[in-house]
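Internal tracking record. Fields below are filled automatically when a chain is submitted to the structure queue. Please do not edit lines marked as system-generated. If the sequence contains nonstandard residues, flag them in the REMARKS field before resubmitting.
Queue: standard
Priority: normal
Entity type: single polypeptide chain
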Amino acid sequence: MADVGTSAERVRQALARLGLMPDLKEFSATTRTSAEAAAAIGCAVAQIAKSVVFRAVGLNRAVLVMASGANRVDEQLVAVAVGDRIAKADAAFVRDRTGFAIGGVAPVGHTEKPVTLIDEDLLQHAEIWAAAGTPNSVFRLTPEALIAMTGGRVIAIK
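SYSTEM-GENERATED OUTPUT FOLLOWS
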C-alpha cells in the first residue's frame, strides 16, 4: 500500500514538472466525496473535479473520468468515447494502475497513464478543485489547466 505522504509528493512533483506550483490543501476531515470536499473548501459541489476510474475491458487500461461533483457519470457515454466496453474498477485495480487510493485519485502523477475524459460541465467554472493524491487533500486549478495537464478529451458525461 502506497504511503499517503508519497502519494501527495508524487502529485506535487508531477505538477512541478508541468511548471505548476499550486497550493495543495490538506484537511483533517476527509474530502473523499464531492460534498465533503466542497464543504471543506467552501465552494460549490459542481466545482469539484471528482475522479472516477473505470477499467477498459478490451484494452485492460484505466479510464479516468474527471467529472463535475454535481454529475453522475453515464457509463454508456464513457464506453462510446473510449471505444471499448468498460467496467467499474475495484480498489486494487485503481491502486495498481494509478498509484492512488479511491477518494484521492489526482489528475496527474499516475503510475500508468490512463485514458482521461473530462466532463464538459467543468468548463463552466473559473476555478475547480481536484484530489491531490490523498482522501483529504485537494488543489485548485482551472479547467483549461486540467485539460492541458492530463491531455484529456472533453466530453458530455451525463
